[in-house]
Please model this.
Amino acid sequence: MPFNQLITAAMVVAVLSNIKVAYAFQPDFAESIINNSIAIGRDATFTCHVRHLGGYRVGWLKADTKAIQAIHEHVITHNPRVTVSHADQNTWNLHIKSVTEEDRGGYMCQLNTDPMKSQIGYLDVVIPPDFISEDTSSDVIVPEGSSVKLTCRAKGYPEPIVTWRREDGTDIILKDAAGSKQIVPSYRGEVLKLSKISRSEMGSYLCIASNGVPPSVSKRISLSIHFHPVIQVPNQLVGAPLGTDVTIECQIEASPKSINYWVKDTGEMLVSSPKYQVQDVTRSLYEAKMSLTVRSFQKEDVGSYRCIAKNSLGEVDSSIRLYEIPGRNRKMYTTKFNDEEQQYGSTEDLNDVSDSSINSNKQSNVQGKVGTIKFVTPRSPIDHSNSVNGVGTSGGYMGVNVHLNKQFPSIDIVTRNPFVIPTIRTGVDGPDGINGHSYGHSTASKKSLSFITSFSIIFFLLVSLQITIQTD
Model:
């Protein structure tokens, strides 16, 4: 075979061999494209992994519009936010900066083989929730007993879910047309309907919109319920001893907030001063406590005091009567020894005096006489609630001559700390003799009186027995 023919045959074999090699190593995709879920305004990147690319090229297209984004290293689209890059012949990237809702969709990585090879990755542009201001309620003011709708409409992608809660953490009260009531900690829906609302439902309501894309958003809607003032008085009749500080109180409920003040029965408006202390303490959006403290209570302070609450819907007042309770007076008695006067204040002291006086008689041969033992006539129960001073009897001279060196003193039997006899009331509270049993008519008072009488008789008998023994 001539040389030229041999060269031609070798060239043909070489070409055929090259075709087989090229066909055996056609490009293919090494991995699938990962889908992206990107919040609006963020950057998105798609990566196409290719092997055995060889002399073939990589192209990027928008799948829905078939618009070419880039071919190999060149950007074709006029969108300035789109760029391409590659790390090597196997990794090709498509970049989209600051994605918008229009960028949502599928992006195709294509190889110009025959037939053409491609794969698609999807871009989901998510949008965090936001409220539609024109469709969302602002603060609401309604009269008590009416119905109201609170609305919160939100936008976002995916569609947001709206949930209602009370800001103070209390439950939401839902009522239907039939009047049945349902109490729930939260409510889901764009519209919250409250029927026949009461003052306890007053407060701030939060509507919270979320769709899984941070951040969630919330709006605070204040619900004000208006009603005329109401006053509650814990004690309409208050007693205090002279010289003490006494406080009276009124509980106020009003919305809008009321103007509160105190007036005495003389017509005088009371304000804070050295004599009076006036306080208002807010307990909730519609509750307040009025208090008036009268310092160093005196007889001229006895009388009625009116607490008055006034707002734009009305005025209301209530009276509290302040009266005197006699204080705990300590009665003194006097003893005389050799014309010297000594004072004692209790039966304990009296026991010491009587014992020392009688014991001294045993060592004396001087004629003497027993002094008068006098039982104190009881005071009227109206004078003091603790009328426990004994029975109304008075002893005279005993007419017994004994060997004594001192005159036994004239004494009053009293107690140092009389115990408190509680008032027994059967109706409206009142002072002694008015709308209820007085202290003088109580069972405790009668028992105390009986106890003192018995004690006095026993003491009298003991003294008599001591005198008899001394005489013998």
Q: What stands out?
A: The longest helix spans residues 443-471.
